[in-house]
Specification:
The chain is elongated. The protein is α/β, with parallel strands linked by helices and 183 residues long. Strands 3-2-1-4-5 form a five-stranded mixed sheet, with helices on both faces. The chain has a single domain (2-20, 48-178), classed as 2-Layer Sandwich (Nucleotidyltransferase, domain 5), CATH 3.30.420. It has helices at 2-7, 72-85, 104-112, 130-143, 151-164, 171-175, 178-181; strands at residues 12-22, 48-56, 62-67, 91-95, 116-120. The chain has seven helices and five strands, in the order αβββαβαβαααα. A hairpin with a 5-residue loop joins β2 and β3. α4 (130-143) crosses α5 (151-164).
């Protein structure tokens, strides 16, 4: 990454991940007045919506797409979306080691698009991926302890939160030596 920041001062550094959002409510502990019990309506439906997201570590901006599934073709579609979103800037992308991030289709795409450089996180280290923190914040704000009657309403609320929130996660300052951040 040192070479990337030196060679491309205007380059974008992104962390990417995907998740599945279920219509069925998720619960989280909450403070409530003594003697009163919080009630949460839970849908028996297991409808879900898959999401791909990339957090721009330069700006805190989230780029997210709701997608039909999690596979290599969808990953390819999302990578094309990133190149379109940043049409002139080189991109340094952090990914986890999901199988659909490393297949032949993805390797071929990356070799054809040198503007997009990829570095994979170590295995079993989701805490290193800033995009995981975005998903956690979005779930807490939108889907925990809430009831949506339709998947469309949940998807809209989730997308709105992601679009309107800046996620200033100090990942570079936390995990990269300070000398490397001063370019």
């Amino acid at each position: 990454m040192t070479d990337f920041k030196q060679d491309h001062p205007n380059g974008m550094i992104l962390a990417m991940d995907e998740m599945t959002l279920y219509l069925q409510a998720t619960m989280q502990r909450v403070w409530y007045p003594i003697g009163q019990r919080p009630l949460l309506t839970v849908s028996p439906q297991r409808d879900c919506q898959h999401w791909y997201g990339a957090l721009c570590l330069n700006t805190g901006q989230e780029l997210a797409l709701s997608v039909p599934g999690l596979d290599s073709r969808t990953t390819l579609h999302f990578l094309q979306h990133l190149l379109t979103a940043f049409p002139a800037q080189p991109i340094f992308l952090f990914l986890d080691r999901a199988p659909w991030h490393r297949g032949d289709l993805i390797r071929a795409f990356l070799s054809e698009n040198p503007r997009l450089q990829v570095l994979y996180f170590p295995p079993a280290c989701p805490q290193l991926n800033p995009q995981e923190h975005v998903w956690k914040a979005a779930r807490q704000a939108v889907s925990h302890n809430h009831h949506f009657t339709t998947l469309a309403a949940l998807r809209t609320a989730f997308a709105t939160f992601l679009d309107q929130t800046l996620f200033n996660f100090a990942w570079l300052e936390r995990f990269v030596p300070p000398i490397l951040c001063q370019v």
